[in-house]
Amino acid sequence: MIMAGAQMAEGLTFTIQPDAESASLSLFRKSIEDIERLIRDVDYVITRDKSPRRWIISGLHASAPTVNIRPILGDTESVDAIARGIAIVTAGAIEPPRYFTEAALDDLRRMNRLFSGRDRARAIIVSLNATETATIREDIREKADKILAETYQNLGSIEGDLEAINLHGASTFTVWDRVSLAPVRCYFPKDHKWINRVKELLEKRVLVQGTIHYFRNGVPRAITKIEAIHDYTPDVSLPKAEFGSIPDRDAAHDPVAFLRLVRVG
Amino acid sequence: MAIPRRTWDSSIVIGYLAGYPDFKTECDLIIDSAVKGDCEILVSTIAEVEAAYLVGYSDEDSEAKIKEFFSRSYVVVAAYDQPVAAAARRLIRQGKAQQRKLSSHDAIHLATCEVHHIPILETTDPDLLRWNQIIGNPPIIVRKPVFEGQRPLI
């Protein structure tokens, strides 16, 4: 559906401002590819849906190449998160916006390619419901890197559902961390033993041990040097821990006094 | 839509499992609502460790029940990791400066809430209750366990 600029209101709008007088087809294609990748990565965190058919073009305006998009179901959470997230990154934040994973920040870094070469863009204007919210410029790589400069890493573990195995390039799978609700990219050795083990655990609750990398705000972003992966599916045969089912006279009388006593040994 | 979360410190977990009578009604109602998917209970890994001090019927029985409790779909165990440790350190220093008592264990529970943006910490520890609405943005509510939903008629 092609619409006039004045009719573009709802949803996200990206206006590609070419450095030259007019935008080349190549710049338009690359811009759309990069925008689509970013939208899919942020939308996946919110909806856990990677379907390419979730988003539709609701307007396309040609004088300054402008594409207006929205989710097919009309849900606004992803639209708001993407617009707000791009605004936060382009403003020079040091913490990741909500729902922006390592993959989404990598997508923004890669957009830097749109600002070099003969057919380069000068800026990409992002608008939410017809109001301009951010401008992506050639410094987008530095802006994303500022957030990606990690502050924490430690040996530890992440528990959650295992999804999305990727064997192209570096082998990875995703674990949906139960605490932060964020998808955490886990890098594992590309050998048959590991590949089979990861495939066995697909869609199961697992605990992954290794080196955990965190964003500055404490949200885990990746696991490297994986040491072990365990099936953490709850065991339904265990006896139920009801109220008072582990009787202890002292703890039942005063749990705080009990704790103070055990803490001093 | 994210499910509302609350944190239980070690005193609530231990009191619940051991049968501290004051908790029964509220904790059972909270757990019933969690079973229905209306809330989740976040606990620090240190509560999982401290539950081992409970006497119980036998070590084997206690261990199986502790494992069952912490593996429930609505119980989310948050690690005592570097981001939590850094936040706990800061809180201890803040407590010292304000002459507000905070043990390292209590600092870990409070820091777990702060790092993971959990708005409510439930405890029965008077030292920790004094931290009600002191830290966090919005300020973390520190209180005794309270069920806020519709109570059954009988």
Order of strands, widest sheet of chain B:
3-2-1-4-5
Distance between the termini of chain B: 31 Å
> Mind telling me the CATH class of chain B?
Alpha Beta
Unreliable runs of chain A: 1-8
Give the number of helices of chain A. 7
- Tell me the count of domains of chain B: 1
DSSP strand count of chain B:
5
**Which structural class do you get from the secondary structure elements of chain B?**
alpha/beta
End-to-end CA span of chain A: 72 Å
Task: Give a verbal description of the structure.
The complex is a heterodimer of chains A (265) and B (154). With 265 residues, chain A is of the alpha+beta class. Chain A has 2 domains: 5-148, no CATH class; 152-231, Nucleic acid-binding proteins (OB fold (Dihydrolipoamide Acetyltransferase, E2P)), CATH 2.40.50.140. Helices cover 29% and strands 31% of the residues of chain A. Chain A has 7 helices and 10 strands. Chain A has helices at 25-47, 77-90, 102-110, 140-148, 192-200, 249-253, 255-263; strands at residues 12-18, 55-61, 66-71, 121-128, 131-136, 152-166, 172-177, 183-187, 205-214, 220-231. A 5-stranded antiparallel sheet of chain A has the order 2-3-1-4-5, with helices on one face. In chain A, a hairpin with a 5-residue loop joins β7 (172-177) and β8. In chain A, α1 (25-47) crosses α2 and α3 packs antiparallel against α4 (140-148). The longest helix of chain A has 23 residues, at 25-47. Chain B is of the alpha/beta class and 154 residues long. Chain B has a single domain, classed as 5'-nuclease (Rossmann fold). Helices cover 46% and strands 12% of the residues of chain B. Chain B has helices spanning 10-18, 24-35, 45-50, 59-70, 82-97, 104-115, 126-129, and strands at 5-8, 40-44, 75-78, 120-122, 141-143. Chain B has a 5-stranded parallel sheet. In chain B, α7 links the parallel β4 and β5. In chain B, α5 (82-97) packs across α6 (104-115). The longest helix of chain B has 16 residues, at 82-97. The N and C termini of chain B lie far apart (31 Å). The mean pLDDT of chain B is 93. The interface between A and B is large, with 38 and 52 residues.
